[in-house]
User: Which sequence fits this backbone?
C-alpha cells in the first residue's frame, strides 16, 4: 500500500509541475504588465479573497490494514465547508487558510464489528467462504477544521489559475455506525470500544481552475488497544484521493 501511495503521489506531482511550468511561461508577460492592468481597471478589488468554500468527493482506501482484513466494494466520502482565506503577501498569491467543515465517509471490508453477550465490542475477520453476508461496512461523520498553506497564480481579474494547497486537517468523529447484514441477522454498532474520535491527517490539493486533485492521509488509526478474535491488533488508517471544487 505504501509503495502504491508513493507512486501515485509521484505521478500526480510530476504531472502537476510539468503543467504548472507551461502555464507559468504563458502567464509571464501578463504578470510583467500587471501594474498597467491595475491602473486601467480601477474598479477591480485588489484585496480579493479566493477559494473560501469547498466541496470534494473522495475514494477512501483502508491503509495499514490488520492482517487478514481486505477492503471490498466501493468506499467513498463527501466533504464540504468554509475556509477563511488569509493572504500573507502584497501580491496575495501566498497565504494560509483556516476553516470549518463537515465530512461523511464509508468503508467496506471483511472486518465485522459487533458485541458479545456482556456488551463488549467484537472485531472479527470474516471469511467469505464461511460467512454469507449482504452488507458489512462502517461509516463516520465528522466535524473538521482544515488548516492550509496556500500558493496560487491568481490576480484580481483572473479567475482561472493554478493552486497548490497543503496542510493539516483536524476532526472530531461525532457519530459512528457499523452495519452487518445477513438474510436473517442484522447487527448495528455505534459506540465500539477503542474508537478514536479525534482525527488528524495531512492534506494536499493541486489543480487548475475548476478541477483539483486532493489527497488525505490520516496520521492516527480509527481504533486503539483493541484486537480481533484471532488476536491481531486492529490498526486501520485511511488514505483518500479524489476531486475538490472551490467556490469564492
Assistant:
Amino acid at each position: 500500500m505504501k509503495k502504491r501511495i508513493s507512486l501515485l503521489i509521484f505521478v500526480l506531482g510530476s504531472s502537476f509541475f510539468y503543467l504548472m511550468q507551461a502555464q507559468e511561461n504563458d502567464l509571464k508577460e501578463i504578470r510583467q504588465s500587471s501594474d498597467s492592468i491595475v491602473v486601467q481597471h480601477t474598479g477591480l478589488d485588489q484585496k480579493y479573497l479566493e477559494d473560501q468554500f469547498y466541496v470534494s468527493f473522495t475514494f477512501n482506501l483502508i491503509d495499514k490494514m490488520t492482517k487478514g482484513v481486505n477492503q471490498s466494494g466501493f468506499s467513498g466520502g463527501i466533504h464540504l465547508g468554509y475556509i477563511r482565506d488569509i493572504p500573507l503577501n502584497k501580491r496575495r498569491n501566498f497565504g494560509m487558510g483556516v476553516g470549518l467543515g463537515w465530512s461523511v465517509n464509508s468503508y467496506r471490508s471483511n472486518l465485522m464489528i459487533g458485541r458479545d453477550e456482556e456488551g463488549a465490542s467484537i472485531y472479527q475477520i470474516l471469511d467469505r467462504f464461511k460467512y454469507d453476508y449482504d452488507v458489512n461496512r462502517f461509516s463516520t461523520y465528522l466535524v473538521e477544521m482544515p488548516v492550509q498553506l496556500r500558493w496560487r497564480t491568481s490576480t484580481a481579474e483572473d479567475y482561472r489559475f493554478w493552486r497548490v494547497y497543503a496542510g493539516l486537517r483536524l476532526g472530531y468523529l461525532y457519530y459512528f455506525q457499523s452495519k452487518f447484514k445477513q438474510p436473517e441477522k442484522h447487527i448495528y454498532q455505534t459506540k465500539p470500544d477503542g474508537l478514536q474520535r479525534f482525527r488528524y491527517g495531512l492534506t494536499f490539493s493541486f489543480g487548475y481552475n475548476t478541477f483539483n486533485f486532493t489527497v488525505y492521509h490520516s496520521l492516527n488509526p480509527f481504533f486503539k488497544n483493541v484486537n480481533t478474535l484471532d488476536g491481531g491488533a486492529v490498526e486501520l488508517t485511511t488514505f483518500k484521493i479524489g476531486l475538490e471544487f472551490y467556490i469564492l
User: Anything to note?
Assistant: The domain at 54-247 is CATH 2.40.160 (Porin).
